[in-house]
Amino acid sequence: MNIMSNKTFLIIFLFLISACSSVPQNTSNSCKIFDERYLWYKHSKKVEQKWGTPIHIQLAIIKMESDFDWLAKPPRQKLFKVIPFKRPSSSFGYSQAVKGTWEQYKNETGNKLATRARFKDSVDFIGWYTNKTNSILKISLQDAFKQYIAYHEGWGNYKHYKKNKKVISLAKKVEKQSKIYKKQFSKCSNSFNKNRYIIF
User: Does residue 54 contact residue 130 with C-beta atoms inside 8 Å?
Assistant: First the structure.
């Protein structure tokens, strides 16, 4: 009986983990994302209130960085175009934060248990980072294009971005996606502001 109970518990636990961590079916639609992940809306809304970073920009950054894959990592480099080698950076999780910046975030916010594989912590990191970008580089929290460049390149390298065609192209995509998310969310935001029952 105990063995069966343990097996049942394990199955339920694994189901809940996979349900909570799987990638939403439609990552290009903000309303669909929050329909599937209502708690994500609550976390994103809290970040907007705490750091001032709009929800649509939070989502656009995550869309570009990991496409909402909680275990996302940069692809491994290859030796002689065949042999798998090391990864180009320590980027990981929803936000693709690197280890050093993630540790800085944890130290400055006191969020010692934060993990890059958790959406709640990842959006808070994005809020913290973009808020610091606003303070350091005087870039508006509403400016998805320049905020993403600073996010991708780092505060120190931001001033050189005009020579980097690749990052400019990526930032334009983030800006475009943020506008799409904003337009979509304007049509469904009221439904998320009502209290919902959460099963788990």
Answer: no
Residue 62 contacts residue 70 (beta carbons within 8 Å): no
Q: Per residue in 22-48, pLDDT tens?
A: 899 999 999 999 999 999 999 999 999
Query: Considering only CA atoms, which of 45, 46, 49, 25 is closest in space to residue 35?
Result: 25
The third-level CATH classification (topology) of the domain covering 26-192 is Lysozyme (1.10.530)
pLDDT digits (tens, 9 = 90+) for 86-134: 444 689 999 999 999 999 999 999 999 999 999 999 999 999 999 999 9
Residues 6+ apart with CB under 8 A from 86: 76, 77
Q: How far apart are CA 131 and CA 136, in angstroms?
A: 9
Model-level pTM?
0.84
Query: At which residue do the structure tokens 């990552």 appear?
Result: 27
Render 132-192 in DSSP notation, one character per residue. HHHHHH---TT-HHHHHHHHHH-TTTGGGGGG-HHHHHHHHHHHHHHHHHHHHHHHHHHHH
The residue type at 82: V
Distances (CA, A) of 122 to 50, 78, 138, 168: 14, 29, 23, 23
Contact 81, 92 (CB under 8 A): no
